[in-house]
Write a structure and sequence with these properties.
2 copies of one chain form a homodimer. By secondary structure, the first copy, chain A, is of the alpha+beta class. Chain A has one domain: Gyrase A, domain 2 (2-Layer Sandwich), CATH 3.30.1360. Chain A has helices at 11-18, 40-57, 84-97; strands at residues 25-27, 30-36, 62-66, 69-74. Chain A has a 4-stranded antiparallel β-sheet, covered by helices on one side. Chain A is globular and about 40 Å long. β3 of chain A pairs antiparallel with β3 (62-66) of chain B, so a sheet runs across the interface.
């Protein structure tokens, strides 16, 4: 094993890391946040920013767009759970929207 | 009532209309189709085309992006079910991807 951030985090590590990202929840073994915008167009602007970040990072969230609400769900399939990569992307997303 | 396509369709009307759109299914009272692409970037290109069509039509599907798979879910909230607007958007989407 490599010791890098792609190792699956333990439940206590996740709880601790979530303290720094209070807008995210652990749902079904994944990190999830729903963000509300003014309208569909604003949702799409945000989703394209997330997509660019995801592609740059080679780490892709599930993205659900429901008009003015976007739900992002993050986990690391290769690791079978939540890793440091997910928290890094979650933090990047928080920086986009506050 | 207006007699336009925003009236909720009956189950038999939906079944009949689905014969012309065999790639769509009725799931939980909504029209749904999942389309697979080569990669995440191709998914996003498609999603942006759908978003443009949705915005033009003032009728917005739920859009779920899971890397190279995009699931579209259509219903007409104002009518409380599936309407001709949903089938029209489904047909437009089919024209984009075959």
């Amino acid at each position: 094993m490599s010791g890098t951030s792609v190792e699956k985090m333990s439940e206590s590590e996740i709880k601790s890391a979530l303290e720094d990202l209070p807008k995210w929840n652990e749902v079904g073994g994944e990190l999830q946040r729903t963000i509300q915008f003014d309208d569909f167009v604003a949702s799409m602007v945000f989703v394209n920013r997330v997509a660019d970040a995801a592609e740059s990072d080679a780490h892709h969230p599930d993205i659900l767009i429901r008009y003015n609400k976007v739900t992002l769900t993050l986990s690391t399939h290769d690791a079978g759970g939540i890793t440091g990569k997910d928290f890094r992307l979650a933090s990047t997303i928080d920086d986009m929207v506050g």
